[in-house]
Amino acid sequence: MNELDSEKIAGNLQRTGMQAATDMSGADVVILNTCSVREKAVQKVYARLGEIRQLKAARQDLVVGVVGCMAQLEGERILKKAPHVNLLAGPQKGHVMAELVDQAQDGRLPALDLRMDDDPESLETAHVLRESRWRAGVTVSEGCNRSCSFCVVPFTRGGQRDRESANIIREVEDLVARGYVEVMLLGQTVNAYRDPSQAGLSFAGLLRRLASIEGLMRIRFTSPHPSDFSDDLIDAIATCPQICNHVHLPVQSGSTRILRAMRRGYTRESYLETVARIRRQPRPIAVSTDIIVGFPGETDADFLDTLRLLDEVQYDCVFSFLYSPRPKTKALELCDNVPDEEKRTRLKVLQEHQRLIQFNKNAAYEGQVTEVLVDGRARTNFTLSGRMSNNKIVNFDGPDSLLGRIVNVEISGFGANSLKGVWIP
What is d(CA 289, CA 169) in angstroms, rounded to the nearest whole number? Predict the structure, then answer.
């Protein structure tokens, strides 16, 4: 979602005649689009602002902006810590960024926009400078109605606001007409989507409608909430080949006691039942997750429950993080009694545990022929990289003319994080 917000900001500025600079030293406008979900992300922003201070000292006309979730959460405190910032705006402000830059260039007062908009449609813009020519993010909903005790999203992006299905469908149809073959539907709890128009589509209904668009090869979505994962949604994934067979299902902890403290709204047992319903489908569906290690009150037994969950679910991928206390959240009222060293130790143990699971799961793909959407150049010794429908990364050799195409690749090797293959012309 932050990537799409950045593309909207860039598109809005380009519409007014600006061009992307190759580096900050040659830019007239420098905007940091920020995240605040973890404290480390906020620290990185202030470190980067320290680097930019020297540029601003040499060029007083330089516009320095901080936008996004951190800006919404920290507000004008940013201006006190970094007085060289002269533009401050919350998330989803791409459609007004050029106006804010004009105000900042005026120089009399910082340009500020920290309002939360109730209508998600007003935040959309046709001017999006997309980094990819074949994969595009599309906003389905904005904000979240849940109150997880560790999460700042309700404070930075507000409550859930859903776009009308007709506008989403129209946007995707336009993308397909321009050559895009994959879309990523975005929302904080995307599967809680409820069409506010008379069409009244559920999220599963929206997926089925989008799957009927000719030329759209792949549909992804993130991030769903386990409590909103209906049988109808699972059936849509199982029966519509355009919907990628990958589900990112954040669990956060394998301990019911910790899940209650997190206010997640489900238990270990109900989460595992959701996974079982997904795995019972005739179409194999990959499952990934998020896990927080060292949440306040997490005991050795709670952590062991999480390790056992990894063994039971056999995730295809896990994004794991140390607990990070965030302003305004209920978790701040809890006793953060897990020592930092213990948190780091648990994170290392969890990551090594999951690495072995992924290595063994990826070994099963050797010798298979699979479809891969080629989306960029490989970071390894191979020339190209792409993803299977189940989100597995495959690196292989081939000409640049394959970029943006879905091709057949025979898997010839594997590691814990990616697969190796041979392109089949």
Answer: 28
pLDDT digits (tens, 9 = 90+) for 149-197: 999 999 999 999 999 999 999 999 999 999 999 999 999 999 999 999 9
Q: How many CB atoms lie within 10 A of CB 228?
A: 17
* Whole-number Å distance between alpha carbons of 313 and 49: 42
| Cα separation of the two ends of the chain | 35
Walk me through the domains of the chain, giving residue ranges and CATH numbers. Answer: 2-113 (3.40.50.12160), 120-363 (3.80.30.20), 369-424 (2.40.50.140)
- The model carries a pTM of 0.94
In the block, which residue shows the tokens 């072995």?
356
The percentage of residues in the chain with a pLDDT greater than 90, rounded to a whole number, is 92
Residue with tokens 């648990």: 346
- Helix 165-177, helix 203-211: angle, nearest 10: 30
Distance between CA atoms of 43 and 46, rounded to whole angstroms? 5
Q: Are 322 and 281 in contact (CB under 8 A)?
A: no
- The whole-number pLDDT of residue 119 equals 65
- The two tokens of residue 27 are 């830019």
